Structures
1.
Amino acid sequence: MTQFMDVHHGMAGITAEQLMHAHQADLAIEKQEGVHFEKAWADPASGTVYCLSQAPSAEAVQRIHERAGHKADEIHPVPLSV
Amino acid sequence: MTQFMDVHHGMAGITAEQLMHAHQADLAIEKQEGVHFEKAWADPASGTVYCLSQAPSAEAVQRIHERAGHKADEIHPVPLSV
């Protein structure tokens, strides 16, 4: 398992409720791919959302995001953290 | 205080030790601007580093990063998180 940071653009105006629902949609199906979404942060002004996860691969992260209806624009493994 | 996510590009090949030293350089002077750097994640392959902080403004975050020798390429307020 590796930690991943993924980024979604084009989410301008996202509300706290929409972020919560999107995160819950991921959590509801994440076990299908052995992924765990740990945290998400949103900037409604620029429309950027960051998600931190533990997953077997970037493709597994993307499959969950796609099935939940919000494909990521970038997915980076972040094996280093401090 | 607002939470911020900032992004550094061009850090390909960064090591765990370099990430730790960069983070410690921020922590050593963060109080000058009332900033607190909470966490940082790095992708050595793409050369991307993400930093999460609490700060009074994006400019305050940037001033600390500049003084510590690693200006951020993007700084986004992330007032929403889940």
2.
Amino acid sequence: MKSKILNKGPERTIALVFEKGDDVVPILEQFAKQHTLSASRFSAIGALRAAVLGYFDWERKDYDRITVNEQVEVLSLNGDITLDGDQPKVHAHVVLGRRDGSTIGGHVLQATVQPTLEVLLIESPGYLRKTCNRETGLALIDIDA
Amino acid sequence: MKSKILNKGPERTIALVFEKGDDVVPILEQFAKQHTLSASRFSAIGALRAAVLGYFDWERKDYDRITVNEQVEVLSLNGDITLDGDQPKVHAHVVLGRRDGSTIGGHVLQATVQPTLEVLLIESPGYLRKTCNRETGLALIDIDA
Amino acid sequence: MKSKILNKGPERTIALVFEKGDDVVPILEQFAKQHTLSASRFSAIGALRAAVLGYFDWERKDYDRITVNEQVEVLSLNGDITLDGDQPKVHAHVVLGRRDGSTIGGHVLQATVQPTLEVLLIESPGYLRKTCNRETGLALIDIDA
């Protein structure tokens, strides 16, 4: 993955271009740590050769895993990067497109790029923190934290 | 729903975090009125416990209603807030993900959050107005208005 | 299609409103040429009366074409405009919603608007260039170019 700053204002826009074989979430999280991102949003298009998606099971309070083992278009990939403790945490949801145009989507657990993923990330000067939500056990954005 | 300004430039970025049971459109419209939003865009991810989606029937010139009565991931929720007369009007489209990763989507008529919805809203200093489109009876953005 | 500048900062936000019968990609590309866009991103909602979507066949190294011949909601349409040589090039992916809420999506080859498409385009002062990727034959964003 390579990156380029497109705009230096009160917010910065950064293009991130992922390459074949890149696993999106850990690379994005590493980038966020290196650049101390505290409140960012991003949107991406491209394609994947494999993915693992999550659906939050409200009874079990955990994610069901949905495995995608085929070449798919990334029709939308939206998310944010916020602070969980002092560590940046990526939260992303995706819609993928198959050969016949049918779609499959979920919370991004794993996503392997092929051939490219074009991410536009906007970094805000503020910060957003997550705290553990008691009912679900999930770390959710807490505006007051 | 709670909100936080992340960036005060010529455009402002505001994080809106919806909580369990929140009905998205009326709360967003109330926020828009309180803050006199005249041209905003937003994107969100999260999850819902129920929704009513719309599909515009071109013959009837009205929305068919599609009811969703299950826990779903919000895979994408994109929209804008513009002026209809002097009142802010929310226009949002959503793609929802089911337990098996299959998707369903439409124009957002109703959306009940569970457990969270993370909205990033960008407020522009300009304005956009809607006027009634004769052919459809819909209020559409009119650049010249 | 009509356009309006909403924000003149280091980045500019431009609303583009497409009208019935507009073919999205060539009109967007013409706008990009007229305004010398070198690094832009956009997001849109609205509706189409027809579309041709693409799925990149990894074996053939070319797009399969998926034809949509019905009125559909544009649930998400995300993309970017970058430079291919010295010409602006639109890259967009879409998720469309049918009457029953089912979805279909892909790379946008053709998209005919009905009745409206509301695009919010953000122009950055930087630039992004595409170069031909050897393995696929596709023009992909090359951060170093």
